[in-house]
Amino acid sequence: MSPHLSVVGMTGAGKTTLVKLLLEQAVRRGLGVVVFDVHGEYDDLAQRLGGVAGPPKIPLCELSDQELLAITGLLRVQSPIRMMRYLRFFARAFCALAKKIEIRDLPAALQRAADAMIMLDTINPTKTLDNRENIVTEFVNALKEEVGNTVYNSLKEMAKKDEERIAAAMMYLLWAVSAAQVVLYNEELPPIYIVNLFASKEIFMTSDITVGMLSYTVRRMIERRQEAVLVVEEAAKLMEDETMSRVINMALAQTRKFGIRMVLISQKPGDYVMNTRILAGRIQNTTWARELASLAPQMPGEVARLLPLLRKGEFVYIDGDVVPLRVVI
Predict the structure, then answer these.
(1) How far apart are CA 73 and CA 110, in angstroms?
(2) What pLDDT does 198 receive?
(3) Distance CA 236, CA 10 (A)
(4) Of 22, 236, 249, 324, which residue is least crowded by CB atoms under 10 Å?
């Protein structure tokens, strides 16, 4: 039996109310909860249960290479390996620098360090500059210390020959920094954490930051080795994006053995529902209703007839060969 759950139903079917009830029970049982909230409907749950709600934060110094590729959008670029290498060197050096000096304006410091990365072959790190340029020389020195003289000299040569690719890598990173809140490190995940995507429609529409943050969150939850629930709203719409679909399907496959249950919420069924248990609310689209009913082989005709007639708060529980069960909240 899959530990994962799909909640499907048209607007007004009661999906959010149902999921909030399930999450309250999960918190009482000591499970961690993370919600990727597209509509801004879960902030009250965080307040009531002592959790945290806010926009996605990019923890620059904690990201894996894959997560950095996703957040910057480089997963969509053909042959991004070299740009990824430049990004990784940059992140290593900047995070090392942040341990040595106080950085008050993180986005501005990242911009200056990115400029330094692009102009690496023209900068003399031993020259004393004014305060405005100090971050540049400090970054270059940190880069040299992090990667060693051989790699540093190679990077200086590449700055001459591959300036466009380095500039492009920095541009992708700075786009991500401008679209979301960037931090160096994330604090420990609270018992209930609402990642509020509603505040920035740009994040939802492009989905790159959402993809990267979902990958990062799943990894953190697995590393923590605590039973938890991960909720993704508008799953079917998000999974129209090929990269997001791959990430969510991978999460469905990987998380079950670590005690992490995923709850995928959407107005219409997607292919992923075949790998989950299902709570289906009112669905007036006959094609979608038949698609869900086909997953209840005991009585598909009855389920297909029932789904358009359900009232708000009424759901049909579908779990493979188990006889469908009508649920009222």
Answers:
(1) 18
(2) 72
(3) 13
(4) 249
For residue 166, what pLDDT is reported? Answer: 93
Domains, in order of start, for the chain = 5-56+189-328 (3.40.50.300), 66-179 (no CATH)
Segments of the chain assigned E as strands? 5-8, 32-37, 52-54, 57-59, 181-183, 192-196, 228-232, 260-266, 277-280, 314-319, 322-328
H or E stretch covering 222: helix 208-224
Long-range contacts of 198-206 (CB under 8 A, 24+ apart): 198/37, 198/38, 198/39, 198/40, 199/40, 199/55, 200/55, 203/56, 203/179, 204/38, 204/234, 206/73, 206/179
CA 254 to chain centre: 15
| Mean confidence (pLDDT) of the chain | 88
Residue with tokens 């679909």: 245
pLDDT of residue 225: 83
Residue 11 pLDDT grade (very low, low, confident, very high; cuts 50, 70, 90): very high
Instruction: Tell me whether strands 5-8 and 277-280 are parallel, antiparallel or unpaired.
Output: parallel
The whole-angstrom separation of Cα 234 and Cα 268 is 9
In contact, 228 and 32? CB cutoff 8 Å: yes
* Residue with token string 């995940």: 189
Lowest mean pLDDT across 42-51, 53-62, 131-140, 300-309: 131-140
DSSP class of residue 41 equals -
Helix axes 65-72, 163-179, angle to 10 degrees: 80
pTM (predicted TM-score): 0.88
* Contact partners, residue 161, CB within 8 Å, separation at least 6: none
DSSP secondary structure letters along 271-326: GGGGGSEEEE-----HHHHHHHHTT-TTSHHHHHHHGGGPPTTEEEEEETTEEEEE
